[in-house]
Amino acid sequence: xxxxxxxxxxxxxxxxxxxxxxxxxxxxxxxxxxxxxxxxxxxxxxxxxxxxxxxxxxxxxxxxxxxxxxxxxxxxxxxxxxxxxxxxxxxxxxxxxxxxxxxxxxxxxxxxxxxxxxxxxxxxxxxxxxxxxxxxxxxxxxxxxxxxxxxxxxxxxxxxxxxxxxxxxxxxxxxxxxxxxxxxxxxxxxxxxxxxxxxxxxxxxxxxxxxxxxxxxxxxxxxxxxxxxxxxxxxxxxxxxxxxxxxxxxxxxxxxxxxxxxxxxxxxxxxxxxxxxxxxxxxxxxxxxxxxxxxxxxxxxxxxxxxxxxxxxxxxxxxxxxxxxxxxxxxxxxxxxxxxxxxxxxxxxxxxxxxxxxxxxxxxxxxxxxxxxxxxxxxxxxxxxxxxxxxxxxxxxxxxxxxxxxxxxxxxxxxxxxxxxxxxxxxxxxxxxxxxxxxxxxxxxxxxxxxxxxxxx
Length: 457
Ligand code: GDP
Description:
The chain is an alpha/beta fold. It has 3 domains: 5-106, Gyrase A, domain 2 (2-Layer Sandwich); 127-211 and 386-450, Four Helix Bundle (Hemerythrin (Met), subunit A); 216-360, P-loop containing nucleotide triphosphate hydrolases (Rossmann fold), CATH 3.40.50.300. Helix content is 48%, strand content 17%. The chain has helices at residues 27-34, 88-100, 110-117, 123-134, 138-148, 151-175, 186-215, 229-237, 280-295, 311-319, 340-350, 363-380, 393-414, 419-437, 443-451, and strands at 5-8, 15-23, 47-53, 59-68, 79-86, 104-105, 217-222, 255-261, 264-270, 298-304, 325-330, 354-357. A 6-stranded mixed β-sheet has the order 3-4-5-2-1-6, with helices on one face. A 6-stranded mixed β-sheet has the order 8-9-7-10-11-12, with helices on both faces. The protein is flat. Bound molecules: guanosine-5'-diphosphate. Residues 223, 225-231, 330-331, 333-334, 359-361 line the site of guanosine-5'-diphosphate.
C-alpha cells in the first residue's frame, strides 16, 4: 500500500496561520488521532475546529482540520490539512504527531509528484506549480497560472495527437500498400506535418518571452552625464533610494536594480557612459556599459531637452543603433530648447518611433515614461500566436528537438523517401513531445523536475 506522507506546507517562520498537510491512505486515521474532538463520521470538505494533541493526548494548539477524500484532491489521494497558529514549534509538534500516527516525512515536491503519478496533473502542469510559487510579478504569475490550468499541456497533447494520427495512417500505407484501404498521399502527410511544425515553431518562439518573464526584461539607461538618468532610474524603482554610484577608485560603473512595470519583471541598468577615454579604470566601466547595452531588451536614451545636443549624444545614438529604443527628452519643466531638427536627426539614427517629452523629477513625469514602457512591452513582448508561452527551459529544449525531428521527416517526405524512413523521424517527434507532458518522461526526468520543489508542495 502507498505511503502516507506529511509535511509543513507553509513557510517556516512566525505567521498568523500555518498548515500541516497529510496525503495518503492513512490520512483520515491520522486525523482521528491528532484532532482531539474528531467525530466518528468525518464529512469530507467540512471545516472542523478543535485542538491538536500529541500521542499522549497533550494539547499542542488550537486547530482547524479539513478532510478531503480521494480522488478529488490535489494529490489524488486522501488528504487532510491541519491549520494551526503559524508557530514553528506548534507546526513541528503537529507534524511529529502525524509521523507518530503513521505518516512519513514527504520528500520535496512529493505531493505534486503524487498528483502527477495519479493523473491529476500532467508534467507541464506540475512544473507550473513551482513557477507559480516562485513568480516575482504578475505577468509570470499569470503565465504560470495558465500553464497550471493545463493550457500548454493541452496544446502539446493536441499536436502530439495529430502526429499520432499521421503515424497511424503511415502504418496503414506501409502495411497494406496494395489493398483496398484508402491511402493518404505524400502531399497530405506533408501538409499535416507542416501544420504541426508551425505550431511547434510558435511555441518555440514564445520561449523568448518566457525567458523575459523568468529573468526580467532588461532595460538599459543611456545618455550623457546630468541628463537625468539616475533620477529616472530612481523614479522607475518607485523610491528615491540612495544610489551608490561608484566602487571606490572608479569614477564610472553600471548600477543594476530589479523592479516591475505593469506586472512585468524588469531589470534596469544605469550605464555609466560609453565615451572613449584613456583612463584604464573608466575603460572597464565603459566596456561593461557596452555589454549591458548589447544584452538589453530595451534601451532608454535620455537627452536634456533644455540644452543643445552635444557630439556625445550622437555618439551614444550611433552606439545603440539597431536596438529597440525609447527616446526620453527630459527636463521639459525648464523649457525645451533643442531644435526639432536635432531631435529628428537623433531619431533617424535610432530609427526610433517611441519618443516622449517629460520631466522625470516629477511623479507624473515618471508615470509618462512608465506608460510608454508598458506600451512597448504590450506591443513587442509577450505576444505569442497560439496564446501559450513556454517559460520552462526543459520544455523549450524538448520542443526544439521535436521540431528538428519533424523537420527531418518533412524533408524526407519532400524527397519522396520511403514512409518507413520518414516514420522514424515523426515517431521521434511524437516521443519527445511526450516528455513535456510526462507521457514518456523517464524516472530521471521526473527526479530532476521534482527535486526543484520546496518541502510541503
Ligand atoms: P544623470 O547624470 O544622467 O544620472 O543625471 P541625474 O539624474 O543625476 O540628474 C542630474 C541633475 O539634473 C540633477 O541635479 C537632477 O536633479 C536634475 N534633473 C534630473 N531630471 C530633471 C528634470 O526633469 N527637471 C529638472 N529641472 N531637473 C532635473
